[in-house]
């Protein structure tokens, strides 16, 4: 139980920019500084102005711990292998690549939206993909760049301090667009998915991961984390903004993204406290990850 | 040896084949194809079927299979003469319990496997020092590489993501990584030599004497191997005896000394009257009588000895470094498990590195290496505790303990399911209980 909570806490940290500091702007509970990013202002360039300086600085202080595997981001590091295995098998299946090749993603372009310190970008680059990572918090991008430069296999990653909307404006497209632990923060998931879909090439795919809106996730991520243990400030999460897998599938359909087979392309993730590892599971009641193919027009 | 095994395994797996690997060893490469010399070297190991399976996976079994000596039964008894246990491969429906093989042959087969591959064989040379980023200090975000830097005695320097420390009980890599060990001396020495016996046999004999176990292991033709764990004083004495006297000492220790041999029959009675009506499930060896071991005729090599101790590294992994084999753990030779635990480590490490490559991770990441550590500690520690326990129980000469041992012998001898459990655990390189763990 605590690990699901820890992951939530970490998602909070990673997308600090996407929460309006709930203390400084009580009206904006439902929208973050992402308001500027995703709602209406397609043309807004930098999100710096809509990010609360105080919160941003707070997160900037944590940015140095992204890559400390035994530090505050430890559960996220622990969850990484499972997400990567899911992505890898999805990509090999979709693009007909050899799953036992050491670099199966050679020739594919990937966009990671909300990349944080680059935990997802680096392994994908090692698997052979050409990776672009974007995040709204500049400190994250700086940390990501510094770390990626240390390994020749990851030095080719392109990191940018920008938004998905901006890239849509620039008419960029990628084989795969990944947005893990982002959609629960955006004010308008439909618009967000539309942007992701526009950024995906024909016959490409989109991957998202998020939390389910279920009694289980309420008791763990909201009630326990915010009201009992005080791990997150009260009101950090708006449980009503979590999306169920069915809703996500429906919204994706409307954005021309098809989830072909439930359970093969939509899987739960849960933490096994005995083995201290994350696993993919049939149970989608708390965390889950979904793969959707972009339909040809 | 275990280091070379790791390299062979990595090369044999399609996922890890593309990793750049260098093996550093102090002894020169010998390009000769392995040949059996006339008299077997006394430094041997007994390898379990799980290890054989690993050798098949890494491509060295073809080379080895004609040079190993199989054994299909085992007899264990002690000086008190109150009980004995016989094990037979047929108890678990297997053709053999294990194989005895010269260490030199194991090493050669591994080297031969590496010859044709892309692995850099840097021998002979030795590691002078290793700089690990976590020991230097500083945040990961600071400028500069966060890889490990290995300096060799011949002046070369290598930067690497992962250092696999397979440099034995006195591991330098382990020291450089700042990993401490715990353990104790057994106050015993292991004396080894090759002997000729009066007939070819395929049984491993082991008699526990007050000073330690004496084991006679079968080899090809009429050769056998002696492993005598005893006090340093006795070891010195034995080494200085003229050959004939030594041969007599061995034969007496295996048969006459201390007390007459155990009577068969007790276990049979126990089995037939009390246990089999309820439990069935009899192991064939439960009704085998006690047998006298083969007679030693002559000693064929020098008598070598080495001190025995138990040691265990507090951790098997640190950022960018991992320990395998004796560098991580040493055990008493009484059950011949040392090499098998090492190969078990190699198999587990290869599996973990495969996972790392599959997930695109940096293979030196501590979270990955911790997985290896947890798996192997889970398998190794119970085995080490059991072996240590045996060592203590068999070194204690007192009425109640002797009776306890006798009860133990008789119980295992007669109770089929227990015997099968003992055999399976020994054959699978640890109490992991999952044979699949050791297959790549």
From TrEMBL, chain B:
Record function comment: FAD-dependent monooxygenase required for two non-consecutive steps during ubiquinone biosynthesis. Required for the C5-ring hydroxylation during ubiquinone biosynthesis by catalyzing the hydroxylation of 4-hydroxy-3-(all-trans-polyprenyl)benzoic acid to 3,4-dihydroxy-5-(all-trans-polyprenyl)benzoic acid. Also acts downstream of coq4, for the C1-hydroxylation during ubiquinone biosynthesis by catalyzing the hydroxylation of 2-methoxy-6-(all-trans-polyprenyl)phenol to 2-methoxy-6-(all-trans-polyprenyl)benzene-1,4-diol.
Gene Ontology CC: extrinsic component of mitochondrial inner membrane; mitochondrion
GO terms, molecular function: 2-methoxy-6-polyprenolphenol 4-hydroxylase activity; 4-hydroxy-3-all-trans-polyprenylbenzoate oxygenase activity; FAD binding; oxidoreductase activity; oxidoreductase activity, acting on paired donors, with incorporation or reduction of molecular oxygen, reduced flavin or flavoprotein as one donor, and incorporation of one atom of oxygen
Protein topology in the membrane: Peripheral membrane protein
Stated name of the protein: Ubiquinone biosynthesis monooxygenase COQ6, mitochondrial
Catalytic reaction list: a 4-hydroxy-3-(all-trans-polyprenyl)benzoate + 2 reduced [2Fe-2S]-[ferredoxin] + O2 + 2 H(+) = a 3,4-dihydroxy-5-(all-trans-polyprenyl)benzoate + 2 oxidized [2Fe-2S]-[ferredoxin] + H2O; a 2-methoxy-6-(all-trans-polyprenyl)phenol + 2 reduced [2Fe-2S]-[ferredoxin] + O2 + 2 H(+) = a 2-methoxy-6-(all-trans-polyprenyl)benzene-1,4-diol + 2 oxidized [2Fe-2S]-[ferredoxin] + H2O
Subunit structure: Component of a multi-subunit COQ enzyme complex.
Major localisation: mitochondrion
Family affiliation: Belongs to the UbiH/COQ6 family.
UniProt keyword list: FAD, Flavoprotein, Membrane, Mitochondrion, Mitochondrion inner membrane, Monooxygenase, Oxidoreductase, Ubiquinone biosynthesis
Gene3D superfamilies tied to this protein: FAD/NAD(P)-binding domain
Cofactors, names only: FAD
The protein's annotated pathway: Cofactor biosynthesis; ubiquinone biosynthesis
Compartments it resides in: Mitochondrion inner membrane
């Amino acid at each position: 139980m605590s690990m699901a909570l820890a992951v939530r806490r970490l998602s909070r940290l990673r997308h600090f920019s996407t929460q309006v500091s709930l203390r400084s702007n009580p009206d904006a509970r439902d929208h973050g500084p992402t308001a500027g990013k995703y709602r209406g202002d397609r043309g807004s360039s930098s999100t710096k102005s809509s990010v609360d300086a105080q919160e941003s600085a707070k997160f900037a202080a944590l940015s140095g711990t992204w890559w400390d595997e035994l530090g505050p981001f430890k559960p996220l590091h622990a969850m990484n292998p499972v997400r990567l295995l899911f992505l890898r098998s999805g990509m090999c299946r979709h693009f007909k690549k050899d799953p036992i090749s050491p670099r199966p993603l050679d020739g594919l372009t990937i966009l990671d939206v909300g990349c944080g310190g680059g935990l997802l970008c680096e392994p994908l680059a090692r698997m052979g993909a050409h990776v672009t990572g974007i995040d709204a918090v500049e400190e994250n991008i700086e940390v990501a760049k510094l770390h990626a430069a240390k390994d020749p296999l990851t030095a080719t990653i392109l990191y940018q301090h920008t938004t998905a909307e901006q890239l849509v404006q620039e008419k960029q497209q990628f084989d795969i667009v990944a947005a893990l632990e982002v959609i629960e923060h955006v004010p308008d998931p439909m618009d967000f998915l539309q942007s992701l879909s526009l950024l995906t090439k024909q016959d490409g795919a989109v991957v998202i991961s998020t939390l389910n809106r279920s009694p289980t996730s309420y008791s763990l991520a909201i009630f326990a984390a915010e009201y009992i243990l005080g791990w997150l400030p009260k009101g950090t999460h708006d449980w009503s903004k979590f999306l169920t897998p069915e809703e996500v599938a429906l919204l994706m359909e409307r954005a021309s993204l098809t989830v072909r087979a439930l359970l093969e392309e939509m899987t739960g993730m849960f933490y096994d406290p005995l083995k201290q590892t994350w696993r993919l599971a049939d149970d989608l009641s708390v965390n889950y990850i979904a793969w959707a193919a972009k339909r040809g027009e | 040896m275990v280091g070379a095994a790791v390299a062979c395994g990595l090369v044999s797996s399609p996922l890890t084949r593309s990793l750049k690997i260098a093996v550093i060893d102090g002894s020169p490469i010998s390009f000769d194809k392995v040949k059996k010399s006339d008299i077997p070297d006394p430094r041997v190991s007994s390898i379990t079927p799980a290890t054989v399976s690993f050798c098949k996976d890494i491509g060295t079994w073809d080379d080895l299979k004609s040079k190993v000596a199989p054994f299909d039964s085992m007899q264990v008894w002690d000086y008190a003469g109150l009980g004995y246990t016989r094990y037979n491969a047929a108890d678990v429906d297997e053709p053999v319990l294990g194989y005895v093989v010269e260490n030199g042959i194991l090493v050669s087969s591994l080297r031969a496997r590496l010859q044709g591959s892309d692995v850099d064989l840097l021998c002979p040379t030795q590691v002078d020092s290793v700089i690990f980023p976590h020991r230097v200090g500083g945040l990961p975000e600071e400028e500069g590489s966060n890889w490990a830097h290995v300096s060799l005695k011949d002046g070369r320097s290598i930067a690497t993501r992962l250092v696999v420390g397979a440099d034995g009980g006195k591991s330098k890599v382990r020291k450089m990584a700042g990993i401490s060990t715990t353990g104790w001396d057994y106050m015993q020495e292991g004396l080894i030599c090759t002997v000729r016996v009066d007939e070819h046999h395929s049984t491993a004999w082991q008699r526990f004497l007050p000073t330690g176990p004496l084991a006679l292991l079968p080899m090809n033709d009429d050769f056998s191997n002696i492993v005598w764990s005893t006090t340093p004083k006795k070891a010195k004495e034995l080494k200085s005896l003229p050959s004939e006297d030594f041969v007599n000492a061995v034969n007496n220790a295996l048969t006459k000394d201390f007390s007459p041999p155990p009577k068969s029959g007790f276990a049979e009675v126990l089995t037939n009257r009390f246990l089999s009506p309820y439990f069935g499930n009899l192991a064939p060896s439960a009704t085998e009588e006690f047998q006298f071991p083969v007679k030693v005729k002559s000693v064929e090599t020098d008598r070598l000895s080495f001190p025995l101790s138990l040691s265990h590294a507090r951790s098997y992994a640190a950022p960018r470094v991992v320990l395998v084999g004796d560098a991580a753990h040493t055990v008493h030779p009484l059950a011949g498990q040392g090499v098998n635990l090492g190969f078990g480590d190699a198999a587990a490490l290869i599996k973990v590195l495969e996972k790392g490559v599959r997930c695109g991770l940096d293979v030196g990441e501590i979270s990955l290496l911790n997985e290896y550590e947890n798996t192997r500690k889970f398998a190794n520690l119970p085995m080490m505790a059991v072996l240590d326990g045996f060592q203590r129980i068999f070194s204690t000469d007192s009425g109640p303990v002797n009776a306890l041992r006798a009860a133990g012998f008789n119980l295992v001898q007669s109770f089929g399911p227990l015997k099968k459990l003992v055999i399976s655990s020994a054959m699978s390189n640890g109490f992991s209980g999952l044979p699949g763990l050791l297959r790549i």
